[in-house]
TrEMBL record:
Species for this entry: Geodia barretti (Barrett's horny sponge)
Name the record gives this protein: 2-keto-3-deoxy-L-fuconate dehydrogenase
Gene3D superfamilies assigned: NAD(P)-binding Rossmann-like Domain
UniProt key word Cytoplasm: no
Keyword terms of this UniProt record: Oxidoreductase
Length: 66
C-alpha cells in the first residue's frame, strides 16, 4: 500500500494569480491539469517507490521561492 499527499495550494484563483505569481520561481500558477497529471503519476505503478511523502505542485516555491 502506498500513501502520498499532494499539496496543490498554488493552483489557480484569479486574484491570487495576479498578486503572488511573482513569488513563484516559474512565474506562474499551475493549471488544474498539471495537478491532475501529478495525481495520475502517484496513482500509477510508475510511482511504486514513492510513498509517505507530501508532493508539492507549486512551481518551485517550496524549494526556495521568494
Amino acid at each position: 500500500m502506498r500513501v502520498a499527499a499532494l499539496d496543490d495550494s498554488k493552483v489557480t484563483v484569479e486574484v491570487a494569480k495576479q498578486s503572488f505569481a511573482d513569488r513563484i520561481p516559474l512565474q506562474r500558477y499551475g493549471d488544474p491539469e498539471e495537478v491532475a497529471k501529478m495525481m495520475l503519476f502517484l496513482a500509477s505503478d510508475d510511482s511504486s517507490f514513492c510513498t509517505g511523502g507530501v508532493y508539492m505542485v507549486d512551481g518551485g516555491r517550496s524549494a526556495g521561492g521568494r
